[in-house]
Amino acid sequence: MNRRLRKGGGMEKIKRVKIDKERTWVFSPVSNIAFKVDIGGRISQEQLKKAIKNTIQQYEMFHQKIVLDESGIAYYEETNVLNPTIRPMNLEWSEVIKEQEKIPLRIDQGELIRFFYSQKEECMSLLIVAHHIAGDGMSFIYFLQDILRSLAGRKIEYKKLQLFDMDALPKKTKLQAPTTWLKKHMNKQWSRTGRKFDFEEYYQMYKQCWKNRETLVYTYQLKEENYDLLYQYAKANQVTINTLLTTALIKVSGELCDVGMAASIREKDFTGMGNYATGISIKYKYKEKYDFLWNAKMVQKRIYSKLNNTSKKYFLLQFMRNIEPTLIDAVYFNACGNYENKIAKTFSKMFGYDGNPKGISITNLTQLPIESKYNDIELKDLIFIPPIVLNAKRIIGVASLGKNMRLSLHINNDENVGVNSDFFYKAMEFLTNEIGK
Questions:
Q1: What's the pLDDT score for residue 5?
Q2: Mean pLDDT taken over the chain
Q3: I need a surface site. Which of 9, 273, 380, 403 has the fewest CB within 10 A?
Q4: Residue numbers of the chain with a pLDDT score lower than 50
Q5: Which positions carry the signal peptide feature in this UniProt record (predicted)?
Q6: Which residues sit opposite 173 in a β-bridge?
């Protein structure tokens, strides 16, 4: 606990919480997580703004700013409640995402989220653009639920700052000796050659990262009839919908795929804000001599070999937690061309930031655990757009609301746009054809 002088000469406590699991997001230049939602009902602009501000007030996460101490350790530090940006969309929502990715959220000033809206005759469209350090995808789903509750005049419970406890990781997740030794050696080398960075340098790096870069978002909708077919197919064949989506993407890619997936580690019934996810990856090449279902079962076997193995499921978290925090920062500065250091470059290659990203990355929020109706207010549609991180070539966000599944493809706007967007739509076409047979 740190303290500061009050104007009257006394001491005022400053509440600080050390950033551990979320450290990878502090200086990430690709940290925007977005949600586009359509809300049905008679809602005025002022009602929407009031509901957003009321909800912000009830989340301790939005009473924080990010600070660094003299050694480069990062903290959430209590500050004034955020007065967020809430303004009309003057562009299509996907264009607003493109616009906002070039404007860093000022997390050192407590700016963790922005809101944009468009009022239509039949609904209110709301775009939420937030910094991933505030929470994972599911956190913002519960946050959105509270905005809708507030719009409907319902009471919202106060959500305390409750981060994932990295010290509570299962004992089975302890790293093997060779990995532990290597990391200690690299950390030692970093302590001799490395340095700490500050927010001014971060914003300069961010600007350079986005100077000649932009991203695009494509969407696909699986409506009631096709969603029913997909659900029944998955149930009858004892495979998950996520497995079927992944297998279709692998099939259409036509190559050995390195697939990254987000996996929830959130406790049941916990609806607070924070980052409660880990990551796993599988490698698989579609076997053309076998049918789709056979391949899907092979893909599922590989996925659950990771999810059902405690050590493998939590490996990424254990690996990252023992890297010096300033070295994690340095990897971004190295990858974005602002900083040269041998150790940072080694880790940049290890993380896939050196131009060799994963071909497919999926974050599936599955069936959303929230209501769709709140008195006269109705959540009619939701699209989830994860950040296109530096080690991902094509990232797909998935969210299902009732019998409506929405998918987004988030890619870099480069020479591969046509190939990557075709890949996405062909995979969805292939999947709908397979389940409809």
A1: 35
A2: 94
A3: 9
A4: 1-11
A5: none
A6: none
Q: How far apart are the first and last CA of the chain?
A: 62
Q: Please answer whether residues 195 and 326 qualify as being in contact, where contact means their C-beta atoms are separated by less than 8 angstroms.
A: yes
Give pLDDT, residue 176: 84
Provide the edge-to-edge strand list for the sheet that holds 64-68: 16-18, 74-78, 64-68
* Domain coverage including residue 150: 15-155
What's 129's domain CATH number?
3.30.559.10
Please tell me whether residues 118 and 260 are part of one structural domain.
Answer: no
- Name, in order, each residue with C-beta under 8 angstroms of 254's C-beta and a sequence gap of 6 or more: 286
Asked if residue 149 lies in contact with residue 374, where contact means CB atoms within 8 angstroms, the answer is yes
Residue 105 has what DSSP assignment?
Answer: -
CA of residue 48 relative to chain centroid, distance: 25
Query: Which residues are CB-contacts of 130 (< 8 A; sequence separation ≥ 6)?
Result: 32, 33, 34, 105, 112, 113, 114, 140
- CA dihedral 64→68→70→72, nearest 10 degrees, is 150
Q: What is the reported pLDDT for 1?
A: 38
Residue 312 phi, psi (nearest 5) = -75, -40
The reported pLDDT for the residue numbered 139 is 98
Contact 252, 427 (CB under 8 A): yes
Q: How many domains does the chain have?
A: 2
Distance of alpha carbon 280 from alpha carbon 292, whole angstroms = 23
pLDDT in tens, 395-417: 999 999 999 999 999 999 999 99
pLDDT at 92: 97
Residue 7 belongs to some domain of the structure: no
In a domain, 173, yes or no: no
In a domain, 363, yes or no: yes
Domain boundary among 121, 136, 155: 155
